Amino acid sequence: MKKLLCVGAVMAGLLASGCGSSDNSSSPVAADEYNASPTSPATPTEGETGMMSPGYSPSPTSPIMMAPTGPAKIEVAETKLGKVLVGLEGRTLYLFSKDKAGTSMCTGACATAWPPALTLGAPTAGTNVKPELLKTIKRDDGMTQVTYNDHPLYYYAKDEKAGDVKGQDVKDFGGEWYAVTPEGKKAKH
Fold this sequence. Notes:
Number of domains: 2
Shape: globular
Order of helices and strands: HEEEHEEEEEE
Helix content: 10-25%
Strand content: 15-25%
GO biological process, one term: alkane catabolic process
Keywords: Signal
Protein name: Lipoprotein with Yx(FWY)xxD motif
Number of strands: 9
Organism: Planotetraspora phitsanulokensis
Distance between the termini: 53 Å
InterPro entries: Lipoprotein_repeat
Structural class: alpha+beta
């Protein structure tokens, strides 16, 4: 019990120090923008300042690792696999075979390697994206993840730029990963 109180006090101190500064250069967004409450207790999986989505490690060069700043826009792009769904910066979106009934099974280290496609508000459908297949789910961490044809969508941290499909047919975290076609199916090789 004593350790738990100590950890809680340290985390609350980190949260308070991150929110009390007038210099926002270390954080891309304000905490209250994501319904963070200054009175809610910090959890051990929160980012240092409490501003990032729990369980995700921010990378200053990769917006796929950061909390969303608005509605996600899902588009279709041509890759070596053919036409697939893409999100931020034209990066490929993937489905995880282990996900069941529209529920994400990718958390913790999995969500760092395969960041979920997050959104604030309803996602928007670009050209050739079927709006009726585009929906959202609430993740265990409280964030909203984009789904397509009931598949939660993810990026792959090793994809460096638009057009990369390094996550195609990868076996990782107890399942297989595939790029998603505009029809909502897994892309073929």
